[in-house]
């Protein structure tokens, strides 16, 4: 909501490039501040992030899960600080959501259920954003061709009649255009 409220049109960028860092920052801030059993000092929280970033890199190099000593050497940090950061990492817990229909324990208390779902809209928005970037320098003819084929759902033959070209030319134009869009979106 904060991103939507603060967004101003006409500042040279669209909503998605503005909203993504705002939303990501809010999520990180919330997790940093709210997801601790016992909240460690800020320095330990920051070291925890460095340890978590270094662990897979070091595991790849060493060929095994790194020890606390190996992590401390890698990060040039005292072993006890790395150990505290690892303990802090273990003290993070997800919030729970209580449902009215959630199960009860023998004393009649509602049990909490952790709910995690993936919103299918995220992938759709990401795809649309990638497509918009891939279409930035598309010509009016390219856009019209895509509109006729995928919005109006005309056949290649019907598009050829509208544009005054052969069906084979429409096929070639579409193949070239879609290939270019696939490459750009994959990049």
Structural description of this entry:
This protein is elongated. Helix content is 65%, strand content 0%. It folds into three domains: 1-34; 39-95, Winged helix-like DNA-binding domain superfamily/Winged helix DNA-binding domain (Arc Repressor Mutant, subunit A, Orthogonal Bundle); 138-186, Arc Repressor Mutant, subunit A, CATH 1.10.10. The protein is mainly alpha-helical. Helix 4 crosses helix 5 (79-90), helix 6 packs across helix 9 and helix 8 (156-163) crosses helix 9.
Topology:
Layout: H1 2-6, H2 15-34, H3 42-62, H4 68-75, H5 79-90, H6 120-134, H7 140-151, H8 156-163, H9 167-186
The CATH superfamily of the largest domain is known as: Winged helix-like DNA-binding domain superfamily/Winged helix DNA-binding domain
Biggest beta sheet summary = none
Name the beta content range: under 5%
Fraction of residues in H or I helices: 55-70%
- Classify the secondary structure makeup into a structural class: mainly alpha
Overall tally of domains: 3
Overall pLDDT, averaged?
Answer: 81
What CATH calls the topology of the largest domain is Arc Repressor Mutant, subunit A
H/E order of the elements?
HHHHHHHHH
CATH architecture of the largest domain: Orthogonal Bundle
Based on the structure, what is the oligomeric state of the protein chains? single chain
CATH secondary-structure class of the largest domain: Mainly Alpha
Distance between the termini: 30 Å
Q: What global shape is seen?
A: elongated
């Amino acid at each position: 909501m904060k991103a939507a409220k603060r967004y101003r049109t006409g500042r040279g960028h669209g909503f998605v490039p503005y909203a993504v860092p705002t939303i990501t920052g809010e999520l990180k801030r919330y997790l940093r501040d709210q997801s601790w059993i016992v909240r460690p000092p800020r320095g330990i929280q920051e070291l925890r992030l460095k340890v978590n970033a270094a662990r897979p890199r070091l595991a790849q190099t060493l060929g095994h899960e790194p020890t606390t000593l190996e992590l401390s050497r890698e990060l040039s940090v005292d072993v006890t600080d790395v150990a505290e950061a690892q303990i802090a990492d273990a003290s993070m817990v997800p919030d729970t959501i209580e449902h009215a229909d959630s199960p009860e324990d023998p004393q009649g208390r509602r049990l909490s259920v952790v709910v995690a779902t993936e919103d299918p809209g995220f992938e759709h928005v990401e795809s649309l954003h990638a497509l918009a970037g891939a279409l930035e320098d598309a010509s009016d003819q390219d856009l019209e061709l895509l509109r006729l084929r995928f919005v109006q759902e005309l056949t290649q033959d019907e598009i050829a009649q509208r544009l005054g070209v052969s069906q084979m030319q429409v096929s070639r134009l579409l193949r070239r255009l879609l290939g270019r869009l696939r490459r750009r979106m994959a990049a």
